[in-house]
Amino acid sequence: LCGQYDVLIVGAGVAGSALAHALSTITSKLRASPLCIALLECSLAEPDRIVGELLQPTGVAALQKLGLESCLEGIDTIPKHGYCVVQSGRVIHIPYPDGRQGRSFHHGWFIMALRERARRASGVDVVEATVNELIEEPFFADPVTIADGCFSNFRNTVIGKALRESSTRSRFCGVILKSTRLPIPQHSTVGLVKGHGPVLLYQISEHDTRMLVAVKHPVPHVLKGHIFRDVVPQLLASLHVSIHEALDKDHIRCMPNSVLPAIEQGGKYTREGVILHGDAWHMHHPLTGGSMNVALHAIVILSKLLAKVNIRNWDQMSSLLSTWYCCFASTINILSFALYDLFGADGLQNLAVLQTGCFKYFEHGGEYVRGPVSFLAGKVCKIAASPSLLAYHFFAVAFHSICPLMVSPHLWEYPGLAVRDVKVLSTAYVVFGPLLWSEIRWW
User: Fold this and answer.
1) Residue 43: other Cβ atoms inside 10 A
2) Which of 14, 320, 383, 387 is the most buried (most CB within 10 A)?
3) For residue 132, how far is the Cα from the chain centroid?
């Protein structure tokens, strides 16, 4: 072990392990030797989680830029070519554009592959240790990067007065289905369940398929009974047997779907010398599998920026951090929660109208599908990182939803229909507006 480290990273998950490897590869005229990095993790045993199993094409591209694409080899990953959305027996195919490909896998297997690459990286020490406080001994480094996940122990300490409270509006409850055939192979399936949240299914290995059921608060006391009674009957009949077998044999595990908009780091309220990263900094709804994609893309940017500054000069680091967070993360966050609100209309009439309009919007195919899915599968550039373009598609769905409402054979019905249209558009604004503001207000 080194006695003095240039960078200390707390948390050896997706963000921490990838960052350690990325920093080990950067070169700079400002340093005579490569960085010496300590990667600390409280347990180096294989983690077992029900999320963090779906990597969108943007995340795969980020892995390639980081030189970590080999972490997807040898762990029984499943190629992903798009989505399949199912509503009342109707199926819509939403392919990724230009033949782009995502991957899905067992979360623990992927993490162990990332840790192994970090362990083999030059100048990186991977240490099993519990970090209780931000102190100088026994490991000293400047800066310290915190990537200890959604239940971060250091978020309050680092962000201080600027901290925004995270909120949890629902949970994903998951089981593994065995030897299940989804409607479209190598596609993630989203089942829309009337009166309840969506159901997400995707294959994570040759014989295992993850099923995540969105459950709003409060979680039903008899969760299996709720899924059997209210959810399963609305899914495709071909899935019923596998779901019943999984629920009978497997314990249902739950994970909170929390939202935490990012806060600008390096300002007067944040702790000097410390950087938050990954879910410790900002969290995304797992419906779109956005967290890993955003974290990996952020590492690509951060490693390039760190090569241009003296990492022990906090004035330079503060300026760097103010430019680090890009609108790609905001776009993914807005997209994930807006889709969740639409797909989980929960019986509300105006949201149900928007949900139906969204389904019909996708049915048109072509650019109606290519545009929205490009946020997950396009190149990370102006197209995939534009909240304004996302707003365009969201309100295009809204107008698409209200047009059928204006078809009436009686003239005197139009004033009432116009009022209803205004209510639907207002609902669209109520869904999208606060999400947009929460993400961009500090830009």
Assistant:
1) 10
2) 14
3) 27
Alpha-carbon radius of gyration of the chain: 23
Q: Distance between alpha carbon 51 and the CA centroid of its chain, in Å?
A: 9
What pairing do the DSSP bridges indicate for beta strands 274-276 and 144-146?
parallel
Residue 283 is given by DSSP the state B
| Rounded Cα gap, residues 425 and 350, in angstroms | 9
- Cβ atoms of 333 and 282 within 8 Å: the answer is yes
Q: What is the DSSP string of 143-161?
A: SEEE---TT-SSHHHHHGG
CA 212 to chain centre: 14
Question: Rounded distance, CA 53 to CA 51, Å?
Answer: 5
Q: How far is CA 242 from CA 90, 116, 176, 179, 418, in A?
A: 20, 35, 9, 8, 46
Write out pLDDT tens, residues 136-176.
554 455 788 898 888 888 888 888 777 777 778 789 999 99
- Output the six-digit token pair for 265: 């780091």
**Which pair of tokens denotes residue 430?**
């109520």
What tokens does 274 get? 């410390």
DSSP one-letter string for 59-76: HHHHHHHTT-GGGGSSS-
Q: Smallest Cα–Cα separation from 280: which of 157, 110, 171?
A: 157
Single-letter amino acid, residue 431: V
Mean pLDDT to the nearest integer, 391-410: 78
Six-digit token string for 34: 């490569």
Residues 6+ apart with CB under 8 A from 131: 10, 40, 42, 148, 153, 154
pLDDT tens digits, one per residue of 72-103: 999 999 999 999 999 888 899 999 988 899 99
Extract the tokens encoding 175: 């089981």
